């Protein structure tokens, strides 16, 4: 079955304990999704497709190394040019990334291309647009036939600039996978894509191990991050100080965001995830943050401030209960809270949990995350194949 190769050993089933009612609905969606993959499997076996992925945004490394489990040569993250390949189903994928991958200076070796682009801010959009124009030229000159885009979207979901390039609007892009709760996600040719871990800070692919699963952890929770003025993060800090809860958690707040970690600060951050039962995830510019996926990697349960951030995200024609639609649809076993005033009660309950209960919860979280990545991979491949391969409909 589908779950066998992603389970952390087959001796346990994370769904077997009696779940709370609110999880039952997530579980049904989760199982329906697994069924969809099993059903799609035979279809995958008969196809043959060559796809080249051009990784021009760090999110491409999450796609290739974390979701696809692919490798890159050379291993050196500072290399000018890195590549890898992998056969999945009947599709042969090759992946290129690095500063030397520039339009016109590498060989286009497949008729089907996935462009991974950064559209987070104006300067990045300018570069992304050049890549789209390059792809458009290749289509016009019959060098390639199909293009899909994986887009690191804008945190306020201002992604309108890409609309004219979509096939549905007279452009040439067949499929779009976009991060955050973008309002034009329709599950037909535009899909939500996970933000993933901060690969631009070289966050590693973490393999779950025995001690990660079974060792007692020194802290109830952690929050290492920037505290913006007048944000809910200030409220969070006050609540932690009130009852001396900050003594039970690993808290390291700073006033200025730092894009590049020092080796020491990065090691501290990973240790905090590994040493805490819970990872607090207050909203930033968007509710979805790298921290959520990084906490999952280390079996530290995300506690998520489940509120919409200002901007154009949410309430698409598909979904009305944004934010974090993709994670919720996949039955993420997180703790969602509407207000940090709920935190003391969460931590009170946490103090009373036995190590055995925590181990069960970690198992469930780690397996869910493995399954989530495997499901995203399958969904990605199936979507590409359904779109790029000629259909038998005459």
From TrEMBL:
<feature type="domain" description="RXYLT1 N-terminal">
    <location>
        <begin position="51"/>
        <end position="194"/>
    </location>
</feature>
<dbReference type="InterPro" id="IPR057538">
    <property type="entry name" value="RXYLT1_C"/>
</dbReference>
<protein>
    <submittedName>
        <fullName>RXLT1 xylosyltransferase</fullName>
    </submittedName>
</protein>
<dbReference type="Pfam" id="PF24785">
    <property type="entry name" value="RXYLT1_C"/>
</dbReference>
<dbReference type="GO" id="GO:0035269">
    <property type="term" value="P:protein O-linked glycosylation via mannose"/>
</dbReference>
<dbReference type="Pfam" id="PF24786">
    <property type="entry name" value="RXYLT1_N"/>
</dbReference>
<dbReference type="GO" id="GO:0005794">
    <property type="term" value="C:Golgi apparatus"/>
</dbReference>
<feature type="domain" description="RXYLT1 C-terminal">
    <location>
        <begin position="200"/>
        <end position="389"/>
    </location>
</feature>
<dbReference type="InterPro" id="IPR057539">
    <property type="entry name" value="RXYLT1_N"/>
</dbReference>
<dbReference type="InterPro" id="IPR055286">
    <property type="entry name" value="RXYLT1-like"/>
</dbReference>
<dbReference type="GO" id="GO:0120053">
    <property type="term" value="F:ribitol beta-1,4-xylosyltransferase activity"/>
</dbReference>
<keyword id="KW-0808">Transferase</keyword>
